[in-house]
Amino acid sequence: MHGLSRRGSASRMKPDFGMGISGGEENMTQETPASLMQTAGIIPVLMIGNVADAVPLARALVAGGIRMLEVTLRTKAGLDAARVIAQEVPEAVVGLGTVTTPAELETARKLGLRFAFSPGATPVLLDAAAETDLPFVPGIRTASELMACIERGFSAAKLFPAEPGGMATLKALGGPFPEARFCPTGGISEDGIEAWLSLPNVVAIGGSWLATPAEIEAGAWDAITAKASRSAARVSALRNPGGQGA
Q1: pLDDT band for position 22 (50/70/90)?
Q2: In a domain, 146, yes or no
Q3: Which of 31, 145, 158, 215 is catalytic?
């Protein structure tokens, strides 16, 4: 079980949205979308234009305490970049982003990647995702889109784009869907870490600020590590205000 209910059971009972949401290293082995995101806190959205940059970028982020990496298909190098990171940086939890077709979802599974994100949720893609064991996080922006995900048993969703107005949307969705969990992405900056992660239905946030395309192209690995370390420390301080734990 990886955070999805098979479609046959989705019509009979409400999905277990809370499954695995407890934090801690053990969740990396449970591989549910919600637990992966809860453990991560922050997920960099990576647009890699050159495969040669993939491994040093991943190592820079991991060195700063950021392990869950969404490598998007927004560039031609994205798929190969995800593959080489998965092969050469075992500390990283690598997944594919901007997945919009069943074929891309299947490619991510065949490559042995750990998860997949989509900016949206078409019926065809949701049906395909419900038949795979790969943790999948569909994108939504409305209650109707979220309901389509719930009907297929999905436990967590990406709110995309997060801005403008994403906080108000998440607060509103918390009423009729109190157990739903979200990863808002799109328009979030480092300055918004605490505000977004303080929302009760947000388990993680995604963003490109941790490693912008310009920084990746310039090979600014030290700067990326510093940003990752600073952001990870802010998540830790928010979740562990007494200073206990990582």
Answers
A1: very low
A2: yes
A3: 158
Q: What pLDDT score was predicted for residue 57?
A: 98
Reported pTM:
0.86
14 is catalytic: no
Residue 137 β-bridge partners: 117
The CB density around residue 217, as the number of other CB atoms within 10 Å, is 13
Type of residue numbered 123: P
- CATH number at 132 reads 3.20.20.70
Annotation says 171 is catalytic: no
- The pLDDT > 90 percentage for the chain reads 83
pLDDT of 12: 27
Within a domain: 26? no
The answer to whether the Cα torsion of 17, 20, 22, 28 is positive or negative is negative
Q: Both tokens of residue 92?
A: 């990283």
Q: From 99, 66, 83, 102, select the one nearest 210 (Cα to Cα).
A: 66
**Catalytic residue (one of 70, 104, 145, 215):** 70
Burial of residue 158 (CB within 10 Å: 0-12, 13-18, 19+) is buried
Which residue's structure tokens are 């949307």?
169
Domain limits at 116? 34-239
pLDDT of 14 higher than 70: no
